[in-house]
């Protein structure tokens, strides 16, 4: 099974501790567990990674070009600053979904213009940690998988 790379950018390792009024109390480890469970339900293998380093994220995107079926990414602060990450994502030729815990469009002006959105097929933001699971459902749909196809008890149509 070809994996989906689920990449997380800087400071997301501090989820649950950093500004919980804004980002919630769910830790990145809890999100990872939920994503693996959702991936199993959808028939997706999830390769979940986090780095505070821009170059590492770019290297993972390059790796994904050869080994992944798609990329879900929360680029965090690099969303708004990294042309290099944008270029790597463009070169991947993979389906990309951008996810954010907060609604970046309701935040300060410098959070509203994500460069990564220019290459993402879709953006999920403002749903907290649930956004990660929603992004995996969307990715499964883009790859032609469906919950109905995986669940023999689901009636057609």
What is the structure about, briefly put?
With 157 residues, the protein is an alpha/beta fold. Helix content is 38%, strand content 17%. It has one domain: Rossmann fold, CATH 3.40.50.9100.
Written as H for each helix and E for each strand, in order along the chain, the element string is: EHHEHEHEEHH
Please name the CATH topology: Rossmann fold
The number of helical runs is: 6
**CATH architecture designation:** 3-Layer(aba) Sandwich
Instruction: Decide which structural class fits the backbone.
Output: alpha/beta
Rg value: 15 Å
Please, what is the CATH homologous superfamily?
Answer: Dehydroquinase, class II
Mean pLDDT, all residues: 91
CATH class: Alpha Beta
SS elements, strand count: 5
**Oligomeric state of the chains present here:** single chain
What are the segments in which pLDDT stays under 50 over at least 5 consecutive residues?
Answer: 148-152
Report the major sheet. Answer: 5 strands, parallel
Query: Distance N terminus to C terminus?
Result: 27 Å
Gross geometry: globular
Strand and helix map with partners:
Elements: E1 3-8, H1 20-23, H2 28-42, E2 45-50, H3 54-67, E3 70-74, H4 83-92, E4 96-100, E5 122-125, H5 130-142, H6 147-150
Parallel strand pairs: 1-2, 1-3, 3-4, 4-5
Helix pairs in contact: 2-5, 3-4
Give a structural overview:
The chain is an alpha/beta fold. The protein has a single domain (9-76, 87-105, 119-148), classed as Dehydroquinase, class II (Rossmann fold, 3-Layer(aba) Sandwich), CATH 3.40.50.9100. It has six helices and five strands. It has helices at residues 20-23, 28-42, 54-67, 83-92, 130-142, 147-150; strands at 3-8, 45-50, 70-74, 96-100, 122-125. α2 packs parallel to α5 (130-142) and α3 (54-67) packs parallel to α4. Mean pLDDT is 91; it is low at 148-152.
């Amino acid at each position: 099974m070809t994996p989906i790379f689920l990449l997380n950018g800087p400071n997301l390792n501090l989820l649950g501790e950093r500004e919980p009024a804004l980002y919630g109390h769910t830790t990145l480890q809890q999100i990872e567990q939920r994503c693996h469970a959702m991936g199993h339900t959808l028939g997706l293998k999830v390769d979940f990674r986090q780095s505070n380093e821009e170059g590492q994220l770019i290297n993972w995107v390059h790796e994904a070009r050869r080994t992944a079926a798609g990329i879900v990414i929360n680029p965090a602060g690099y969303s708004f600053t990294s042309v290099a990450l944008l270029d790597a994502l463009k070169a991947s030729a993979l389906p990309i979904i951008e996810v954010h815990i907060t609604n970046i469009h309701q935040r300060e002006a410098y959070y509203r213009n994500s460069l990564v959105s220019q290459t993402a097929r879709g953006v999920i933001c403002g749903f907290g940690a649930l956004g990660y699971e929603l992004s995996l459902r969307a990715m499964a749909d883009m790859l032609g998988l469906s919950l109905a196809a995986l669940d023999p008890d689901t009636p057609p149509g």
